[in-house]
Write a structure and sequence with these properties.
alpha/beta, Transferase, Pyrimidine Nucleoside Phosphorylase, Chain A, domain 3, Pyrimidine Nucleoside Phosphorylase, Chain A, domain 2, Aldehyde Oxidoreductase, domain 3, 3 domains, globular
């Protein structure tokens, strides 16, 4: 068996066997299969797809490439959530302390940014001192003591995904339903949670552009999870428009903290509504309550301040400095103005995401260094009325901001 045989088989639209997929995953993980061969197979999968069986075999092989975390020493039903990625999606930063404040253990492993979408780990690492690399025992201890831990993938937790994740980001193979499903579910299963809520984004700023694609991804991931003995719920949410007001690593942490702290003027109702829905689903799975009970409980811990207190406790427990959760000055700040008068009809999340990457908030290559303070603040949101010359957004970066990036934000706004 060799990679050329796998290329030829996939090129003809034939299914790869479990043994062939295992061979590929093992070989790439150990380094015997080089990047250029792995990239070729990933592109063939991106173009020709995979069957349900192939996708399941890929997920299983990726899980088996490293350790599977045993969370049985954590008392209670362990819940996790995952978003397929979006522009301004800081939902994890909000919902995890909400659920922990309700007494449900949240054991979450997250990734770095992929394409135009920000990664939870990048956002948390923008906080001074915050530690995203935890040993298995540290992770378990934090969940037992604080009901919450969010960490990056350890070196031996699904190492196959860690390598493939970075390669997909720079080879144009991100938007593949089988690859996305296998990547997400391998991490979720290996992370050991009992239940998983999947937030599947749909729209211009998501990998899934249409409702049909989003539903197919949701169904694929749910089937994998159930086949592997997990309780899984998938929720499809809009990503035609950026979520909330802030896009960028530190900026999104600041907005999430403001929401939890009740400073709703610093965020937007679209983010608040989405966080309540996802947290409610997590609580329904874990506590076995109905939607009305779950929603009331979620709103209760937001209102009484316990969710904000839990967020602060979580930050300190992983070495972070709460007082550092403030927007920092950048070397360059540019106001973007409206070029016409009317009502904001939509804000193209894809263009906003691309602009955030050019500002330094996202990665162009595996080796790209992030500017944690870079990003975008949306002043005008969907439904707002603006006049010609009004400031609709601010751009922040520690590198010069070019006219192309400014124009891209103006083009993202459809003003009717």
């Amino acid at each position: 068996m060799n990679m050329v045989q796998l290329f030829e088989k996939k090129k003809q639209g034939l299914e790869l066997s479990q043994a062939e997929i295992q061979y590929f995953v093992e070989g790439y993980t150990t380094g015997s299969i080089p990047d250029y061969q792995a990239s070729s197979l990933l592109m063939a999968i991106r173009l020709l797809g995979m069957s349900d069986d192939e996708t399941f075999y890929l997920t299983k092989a990726m899980i088996e490439s490293g350790d599977v975390i045993d969370l049985t020493s954590i008392e209670g039903f362990k819940i996790d959530k995952h978003s397929t990625g979006g522009v301004g999606d800081k939902v994890t930063l909000v919902v995890t302390p909400i659920i922990a404040a309700l007494g449900i253990p949240v054991a979450k492993f997250s990734g770095k940014g992929l394409g135009i979408t920000g990664g939870t780990i990048d956002k948390l690492e923008s906080i001074q001192g915050f530690k995203t690399e935890l040993s298995s025992q540290e992770f378990i201890d934090n969940v037992n003591q604080h009901k919450i831990a969010v960490a990056g993938q350890t070196g031996n937790l699904v190492p196959a995904d860690k390598k493939l994740y970075a390669l997909r980001d720079v080879t144009g193979t991100v938007d593949s339903i089988p690859l996305i499903a296998a990547s997400i579910m391998s991490k979720k299963i290996a992370s050991g949670a009992d239940g998983i809520v999947l937030d599947v984004k749909c729209g211009s700023g998501a990998f899934m552009k249409t409702q049909e694609e989003a539903q197919r991804l949701a169904d694929t991931m749910t089937a994998i999870g159930e086949k592997l003995g997990r309780k899984v719920i998938a929720h499809i949410s809009d990503m035609d428009n950026p979520l909330g007001k802030m896009i960028g690593n530190k900026l999104e942490v600041v907005e999430a903290y403001a929401l939890l702290s009740g400073r709703l003027e610093e965020t937007h109702e679209d983010l608040v509504d989405e966080c309540v829905v996802i947290a409610s689903l997590m609580y329904q799975i874990a506590a076995g309550v109905n939607e009305a009970e779950a929603t009331a409980a979620v709103k209760g811990v937001l209102a009484d301040g316990s969710a904000a207190a839990k967020f602060e406790e979580f930050i300190v427990a992983q070495g972070g400095v709460v007082s550092d959760i403030v927007q920092n000055d950048t070397a360059h700040k540019v106001a973007v103005t409206a070029v016409s008068e009317g009502t904001v009809e939509t804000i193209n999340a894809l263009l906003v995401g691309e602009a955030s990457v050019s500002l330094g908030a996202g990665r162009l290559t595996k080796e790209s260094k992030l500017d944690y303070d870079a990003g975008i603040q949306l002043i005008a949101k969907k439904g707002d009325h603006v006049t010609n010359g009004d400031t609709i957004a601010y751009l922040y970066s520690n590198q010069p901001i070019d006219e192309e990036t400014i124009n891209k934000i103006q083009q993202a706004y459809t003003i009717a």
